[in-house]
Amino acid sequence: MDLHKKYNFLSYLIREIEITSGGNDFDIDVATKAALQVKDILLKDEKLKASAKTNALNDFRFSYDDSVDDALLNGYEQSDDLYALLLNNDELKKKVMHAFIEDVYKKLST
């Protein structure tokens, strides 16, 4: 499945979660990107990599499921730490966030 199809599938899943969880109102783009971040964390997991190299997909699922919680916590902690740092340091916040200013301006001004 290519990235565009995965993104659309994740967006669909997040909409389903909103409906079934009592009306949580997630920003679909933000939630989808967060899910993709967790995937990236899983791809860097050395134990999971070793499991993929030595097991068939059906056996790999056990290692994968065990690693997902760690990846979710890792992603949450990384985002939480970064958000806290940026919220508490105006100079750093401007340096980091101004990396996007032209892109945001162009997308919003057209």
Structural class, by secondary structure, is mainly alpha
Global mean pLDDT? 87
**What integer value in Å does the Rg equal?**
17 Å
Termini separation: 31 Å
Q: Residue share in helices?
A: over 70%
State the shape: globular
- Assembly state here? single chain
Main sheet attributes: strand count, strand direction, barrel closure? none
Fraction of residues in β-strands: under 5%
Structurally, the number of domains stands at 2
- Which stretches of 5+ consecutive residues score pLDDT under 50? none
Count of distinct strands:
0
SS field, number of helical segments? 6
How are helices and strands ordered from N to C? Answer: HHHHHH
Structural overview:
The chain has 110 residues and is mainly α. The protein has two domains: 1-36, no CATH class; 44-110, no CATH class. Helices cover 84% and strands 0% of the residues. It has six helices and no strands. Helix 2 crosses helix 4 (57-88), helix 3 (46-54) packs antiparallel against helix 4 (57-88) and helix 4 packs across helix 5. The longest helix has 32 residues, at 57-88. The radius of gyration is 17 Å and the shape is globular. The two termini are 31 Å apart. The model has no long low-confidence stretch (mean pLDDT 87).
